[in-house]
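Entry 14. Structure prediction run on the chain below.
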Amino acid sequence: MSDDSAAKAARTGKNLLKSASVVGGWTLLSRVIGLVRDVVIAVVFGAGMASDAFFVAFRIPNFFRRLFAEGAFAQAFVPVLADYKAKQSHDEVRRLIAYTAGLLALVLGGLTLLAIVFSNHMVWLFAPGFSADPAKIALASSLLSWTFPYLPCLALVALCSAVLNTYQHFSMPALAPVLLNVCMIAAALGVAPFLPQPIMALAWGVLVAGILQLLIQLPVLKAKNLLVWPRLNIRHPGVQQILVLMVPALFGMSVTQINLLFNSVMASYLQEGSVSWLQYADRLMELPLGVFGIAIGTVLLPKLSQDHVESSPQVFSNTLDWSLRCVLLIGIPASLALVMLAEPIMASLFFYRKFDAEDVRQSALALQAYGPAIFAFMMIKVLAPGFYARQDLKTPVRIGMCAVAINVLVSVSSMPYLAHVGLACATSSAAVFNASSLGWQLRKKGIWLAASDWWPFIGKSLAAVMVMIAVLLWLSPDRNFWYSVSVWQRAAWLAFLVISGGLSYVATLAVLRIQRQVSTQRLMA
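Output returned:
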């Protein structure tokens, strides 16, 4: 390998790390503020009828957002945009963006109008268990009329973000989600106390956040001469290609959301508070997933798409290999730490006023059941782009169909015995199957050629994890401690445990010199 190739590979690794760090940093801020948001909601509204109704009304547009915008659309749009950027003129790129924006606005604008008109039916479809309580379904329907317009705003945000990411600008798209959490906190604390139905303030906060998230993207697009008015031309070749890629991607890339939504539907039949318990556990599960899994997945798709366009299969494989090593180093300890510290975390964050000890315990059980899914979801964020960058949609779709079937079977069979915890177990089972199957198919097709030092790498990683587990077990107080001390004592002791566990893990990695095996050499062709 020439010195120029080695230098280029080293620069590539540094650029990926830098971009992932930017996205991860802003995402970390968003997740931290998101936890503050959830604490505020738990304190102000508790885990009862109003919060259950809001979480359903919020989950419905979020489901479609992740299905159409951040899910299928992003995975179909980025490879096509990367191809146009590499092979077409700047004017052609602008036309592709304009026509794609026009189609998104038309489809999702129409869907929003239908959702508002038939809000009662939408709530019944996504939370049929609410039909036993007319007041609950009426409240959820009213909330949905305000939260659903969030969808077309976020679809256009996803378009803007995909364009900026393809042009190696990651900071503004990563900043946008912070606004949602800030707006919801402001609504809960500043608006809710003055309303006859306080929970309505959260729905208004969601809508305002969607508008603001779109507006902050526009100046950056204008600076890059990529800001265009939406126009409609379904016959444009690029739009046609995106539509062809989106149809199977609607299912394949959104399996996680389908499974989580199915859990929400099933939870609506369980005792009051079940939807909220799952929601709080899901939020904590998304903290490590968002900070690292989504961060590296966001920067990985444009890079893999570029590698594929440039016909660099070895570089493509090395990029995947490097990304998987990074995910393993973060995902396994994050999953195990959340399982071990589930109850202390829930008690430290939410054990106030209307959120009582039983709510803490039930939410913690759900988080523990989600444990295996955390690492699996991170792996999916890296493995799925390996197919989508190559415009191979059939393989993840087939795997996704099997994963949904597993989720349904485990949910139905376990819910009578484990209630909401069984639903979380079903999500984990489906995620583990999905991730392992995607990895196996990448190996089978010769897309990912694992380096020969993977087994020593895994062994050293697991040794570091065992040290972390031993430290946490040694330092953790008994269960009753978390319910008998003040909020500041809980927070201080939890911080001590997290820092101690993290330092022990990183120190063991340093002693074992594992950093050599995740160096930019893995990116060299």
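The first helix runs from residue 3 to 45.
Filed with the rest of this week's runs.
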